[in-house]
Amino acid sequence: MFAVPPTPAMIAFASSWLLAMGVLPWIRVVAHLCAFRFAQRCASGHSGPFRAISGHFGLFRAQKKDPIVDFRLTFGSCLRDQLHVLKGTIAHVAPRAHRATQGAMGSQQQTGLRWGILGAGKIASVFAADAKAAGIRFTAIGARDTGRARAFADRFEIGRAHGSYEALCADPGVDVVYIATPQAFHAEQALLAIAAGKHVLVEKAFTVDAASARRVFAAACEAGVFVLEAMWTRFTPTMIAVRERIARGDIGEVRAITTAHHQKLDLSRAGRHGDPALAGGALLDLGVYAFALALDLLGTPHSIAAAGRVDVAGVDLGAQVLLGYPDAGASLSFSMAHPGPNDASIMGDEGWIHLDAPYFAWTAFQRHDASRPARLVESWEPYAASGMNGTRGMQFQALELERSVAAGLQESPLMPHAHTLAVLEAMDAARAQLR
Amino acid sequence: MFAVPPTPAMIAFASSWLLAMGVLPWIRVVAHLCAFRFAQRCASGHSGPFRAISGHFGLFRAQKKDPIVDFRLTFGSCLRDQLHVLKGTIAHVAPRAHRATQGAMGSQQQTGLRWGILGAGKIASVFAADAKAAGIRFTAIGARDTGRARAFADRFEIGRAHGSYEALCADPGVDVVYIATPQAFHAEQALLAIAAGKHVLVEKAFTVDAASARRVFAAACEAGVFVLEAMWTRFTPTMIAVRERIARGDIGEVRAITTAHHQKLDLSRAGRHGDPALAGGALLDLGVYAFALALDLLGTPHSIAAAGRVDVAGVDLGAQVLLGYPDAGASLSFSMAHPGPNDASIMGDEGWIHLDAPYFAWTAFQRHDASRPARLVESWEPYAASGMNGTRGMQFQALELERSVAAGLQESPLMPHAHTLAVLEAMDAARAQLR
């Protein structure tokens, strides 16, 4: 890790290292220096009190736009005493293949971090069971009343049960707070935990919109704590394996992604999904998986088109979304008002990967080549070699947090703040097109 | 069939008939009279020399926009002596369920129609084999040279082999011409056949754009001959069964359609697909199935967004397309430059239908209900009870043409000119958005 912006000397060093590693055929070196972009943003006055910026510089193939090896950089600025302070980190000085294998399946880490859970609902239970199985250490649970917290604590053998979220965040025996409440409350509760100096894992959708997320990241930056969106499917062995195959060229350049996520949920006001006060809606609850997958593999879209239905209470029931890129596209279809398929496909010039239903999980995948008809060349099963049979897969995000904090990072290289923001910005743009 | 525009008396008659049939609960009668829209178009000067217009009037549920029972009407005008002549036909005076069962599987009809094939390529062979098995009577084949035509005639036991398309069209022993050449030539050759007074079945895509199609329909209208786009998947027992299930409410209101069509084809200039001179491109070759399916079930889209790639020669390689409707949406994904899935899903409030890969064929489907997880309630197999094992399914469009001509129609109720035009107009709109 470097605590300063990359200098020409650093770039030269990294370049020569990569050339020595045998990437000599890639003859054109192009450096997109984030510092330059950052300065541009500040100069244009659009940076706001906080703005996470990520960029890359890398080695490019002649006549190809996509870098073969890229360095990812993440910069942030905090509004502190009205001065923008530039913090630069080289988050990845590694070729893609290396990046893809990061966040591997290691469990039972001994980081000493003590976790508290904020919220005692269904998702908190699934997470607690999975994370405990992976060696995560829980010391406290906080719920809206003590009885509820106590019952949860007893079930998962957690030491302290707090009857309020404030008490949980004030607990000096907690280093990390996992926020497992409906998304309408995430921003407020994340700010509460950050103010108490805790690292935070925030259930997805991270916040109800990008503006709220920027406030949370700004506070985390000022407080110097780690914040991660609980986009658990990004950290599963499934997606690590998928990214690895893409990085090594198994399916060629990614050209198209299709995702399907359709469930007829309880949309009465009694349930979370149909309640506008709880920020219920298909976009934040279902669509977030699709946007996160597409943006992980294709980056920030150049164009967004969305069509969908909004009910009388203002809750979006589902949508079809088109994400356009210069050389690729993604078709996302999701709804909580009707049933349908729940799989996804990632297509490249030389093959394609089918993610089994439900794709938004620690799922199986099949890889096909480009012959006609396409030949199945790999069938990947989720639990083999993981040593984690019986878990749902929500532990991997907790392990990613522990690994990142141990490395002194303030954000995950696999799901940096800029990615969470890009997903929320894209969903904001889609929402604006729904009627 | 009525040869005049519907009058208020006709509407009253039809309404009372339907009310007598037990649809009394549907209390609001709304009439969209095509004559009115037609007059509007003429008045606005946008109608051009020919414009097919379709519309509907029907019985509507209170507070619902979608008609439960609809009458479909198709109007056309011909530029004849500079006068627009209005021809009105009530193409469907039938509830949806009746419409869905039209074009059933009957074969070996004895209409006496004599068919000629224009073009001796691959698709002509498949069609000839299927249609012969269904009792279609071929009397002539025309190709660019006599040897090629003779070989085809020998293979399929067809009497006369013509060495030019002109000779085929001039053959007095031919009543119907099936045009099986690359789509760049369809309009010109259809006009040739129409000028000779033949009925025409034109391989899809019907023409390269909507403007060309309008010229063909105008000529057919003037000549009084039948013209049909060979959108063969619309006439298969598969789609008849699918429409029947939708009409009887098995999956509720259709809310979303997703289609996937991905094949890595030969895109060298030697092949048809990559040749701009032959109007090669994914939109016309692959996308046409997706647009035709979506527009069949959801109607003309209210919004169209497309993202895709065009190669240096101007050939579109593939695209993601979003079709927006007030209460539904369709996500279409297709490419001829990379492999991927080839299935489709039709989702409604109460269930969904999965069309097996390749969905653009006489395929199998599975119907699921809306429980969680969705329960398989029907598995439909294509060849059962068809009596047509061993055929690919291209005969059904020929049977539809024979049935329609025998009924004195100038267009198919299942694929009227307005549908072909709507598909081409939507593809024109999508093409304009590809870079």
From TrEMBL, chains A, B:
<dbReference type="GO" id="GO:0000166">
    <property type="term" value="F:nucleotide binding"/>
</dbReference>
<keyword id="KW-0520">NAD</keyword>
<dbReference type="GO" id="GO:0016491">
    <property type="term" value="F:oxidoreductase activity"/>
</dbReference>
<dbReference type="InterPro" id="IPR055170">
    <property type="entry name" value="GFO_IDH_MocA-like_dom"/>
</dbReference>
<feature type="domain" description="GFO/IDH/MocA-like oxidoreductase">
    <location>
        <begin position="241"/>
        <end position="353"/>
    </location>
</feature>
<dbReference type="Pfam" id="PF22725">
    <property type="entry name" value="GFO_IDH_MocA_C3"/>
</dbReference>
<protein>
    <recommendedName>
        <fullName>Gfo/Idh/MocA-like oxidoreductase N-terminal domain-containing protein</fullName>
    </recommendedName>
</protein>
<keyword id="KW-0560">Oxidoreductase</keyword>
<dbReference type="Pfam" id="PF01408">
    <property type="entry name" value="GFO_IDH_MocA"/>
</dbReference>
<dbReference type="InterPro" id="IPR000683">
    <property type="entry name" value="Gfo/Idh/MocA-like_OxRdtase_N"/>
</dbReference>
<dbReference type="InterPro" id="IPR050984">
    <property type="entry name" value="Gfo/Idh/MocA_domain"/>
</dbReference>
<feature type="domain" description="Gfo/Idh/MocA-like oxidoreductase N-terminal">
    <location>
        <begin position="113"/>
        <end position="227"/>
    </location>
</feature>
<comment type="similarity">
    <text>Belongs to the Gfo/Idh/MocA family.</text>
</comment>
<dbReference type="InterPro" id="IPR036291">
    <property type="entry name" value="NAD(P)-bd_dom_sf"/>
</dbReference>
